[in-house]
Batch of 2 targets.
Target 1
Amino acid sequence: MEVTVKAPASSANLGPCFDCAGIAFPLYNFVKVKKAADGDVKVIIDEKNDVRTFVVDEKNIIFQAFKRFHEKTKTENTGYEVRVETHIPIARGLGSSASVISGALIAANELNGNPLSKQDLIDIAASIEGHPDNTTPAFTGGFVVASIEDDGHVLYEKIDWCKDWKISVCIPDYKLLTELARSVLPEKVAFKDAVYNIQKSAQLITAITNHNADIMRSALNDKIHQPYREKLVPGMSEIISELKKENNVLGCVLSGAGPTLAVITEGDNIDNVKTIVEKIWHDLDIKYEIMTFVPEENGAAIV
Ligand code: HSE
């Protein structure tokens, strides 16, 4: 028996809500899983017909998904074969790993008689990534606020996104590993920067809850991760400051750990966004693509 899970992309942080909010997009990985009998976890990655096969170990997120599933259910892991058809660009800040983790866990649950609840799977997924802001929207769809509580479980809540607000992801053609993007973050932040982010996070949730564009425009700012990551994303600060001048732009933020930039606009016309991004990244010789979305309201599911 083979199970296929369709699992969405996501964009975490949305500026100030570092490690605690994310939104799912209609861009998907397909995770096809069947049991094996040799105890190994064999992974086949199919990235636009570039197919790579390897047997993975402890260091791999798919291995971890199965390991933690079987630890939690106190059952034997006899091995798996996993084929991932990737349509979510890898290492771009679009939740590709979270999508694969959610797919592996949902498939493992199905192949073993569904012993775990969705909450259990969300908890395991967040424990693998160490933060819940991509893994949770991968399971739930939509815009979600999420935290890992002291007992390890994820507390989350979805909030309706305003239908007039579009998200354009500007995806540069280079990879940025989350480990590197986290390694440049400081041990401590200044008290005034922490207060700034608390204010902006509160504004962001209020703006989304009340569909208030003026508050959203003020909220989409950050002082605790983006300033440190700027050096890893050439052109980022220029694009953000140029887009701030545009009436239809509510904000531009780093998508997750980057290097993708997420631009939130009111209305459908984003020609001005494309012109600004083209001017700045073209001058820096950075190739990219832009996709415009409304959120995917459904989370990962068996197809
Ligand atoms: N909140 C995480 C970060 C998302 O910004 O590092 C990346 O997976």
Target 2
Amino acid sequence: MTQENKTIILGVTGGIAIHKSVDLASQLVKQGHSVHVVMTENATRLVQPTQFQVISRNPVLLDLFDLGSDWKPVHIDLADRSDLLAIVPATANIIGKMANGIADNALSTVAVSVHCPILIAPAMEQHMYENPFVAANVQSLKSHGVEFVEPVSGDLASGKQGMGRLNTVEEILGRINQLLNTSKDLRGKRVIVTAGPTREYLDPVRFISNRSSGKMGYAVAEAARDRGADVLLISGPATTAPPTGVETRYIETTLELQEALLERFDQTDIVVMAAAVADYRPQAFSPNKIKKTTDQLNIPLEQNPDIAQVLGERKKRGQITVGFAAETNDLLENAQRKLVKKNCDLIVANDVLAEGAGFEGDTNIVTLLDQSGHREQLPLLSKREVADRILDRVVDLIQEGD
Ligand code: PMT
């Protein structure tokens, strides 16, 4: 990705994964960014500031009262001209301070002084990350628009295995570049994203559903938001929190999803349908819990409307509709058929049996197919990166149609 050089503050706290931060600083400098490192005292016990200073080619800020060459306090000057604050690795301590507005050292003071996007990559023991106080602080920061690169599972400092390991440098770098993407190429566009599973109830306690976690659709909603769009996320019962800064409406059944989509479709520019929608629903709903009375139970099902097809037939003002095709065989043939039948502008084909693709995970492997016959096969990418690649194509399609 080519972009202008940016001023990035890299906050470094005392986590054992600090070596990844050294690598990150080096890669950011190689990309042409101006990197200014701010270290906590504990971080300096693990890595010498000189190392960051040489790699970043800028002085490292350690103390609030360090004298800069200017009359302005260094942390204020830095905060005023930065395009991004990335804290890598972030301990429970800095997360707690930030969530509570505490400014008692150089980094926490910079964090309350910046007016640029903030990205946090936590690293800590699993039980710390899952601790309810820490989780509440993370949630509070997210609700104020702070971005997180979630930790992953693996070896931890304690020698145990678990969740809490700092994510990879590649993933963090990818998120930084996304946040720095100033093109805002969807500014002024109204985008609807559907995500998660639908539920088709048999009785008050049982339903037919699927494994969709909502992650793919949520990533598209987040990416569209970052590119300046006005986003409505219509979500089935998903397993993760929706992105901040996005209007979210929850539905359960396919018919509810259709109603929510039709309500806003005519005023919308782009619809991305990542929801895993049930093709059938029980013909009858039993108001009471179905009792175990027979050896076999047959439940007649009736077809749900094909919402993507309904929208495809209803396009009046050149809306772009993007469908997903979740396939287990004949991926491209089936996806091509859906592209035509549903009159989508773009279909995102994912082989949901392939390792690293489809339901629940954080990655996907997809091929993008459009009406002109153009096909783009993408490698294994994070769902967020897939989301951006889909929106890149959507932007191309809008430009081609202008
Ligand atoms: O949520 P995750 O765990 O991250 O998993 C991601 C995903 C696998 C759910 C996602 O990437 C995906 O493939 N979503 C589409 C699932 C699906 O319903 O596929 P389909 O091939 O059955 O449907 C094709 C398209 O038509 C989809 O855009 C679907 O939203 C839409 N559809 C389907 C049925 C129906 N009755 N109405 C529809 O509009």
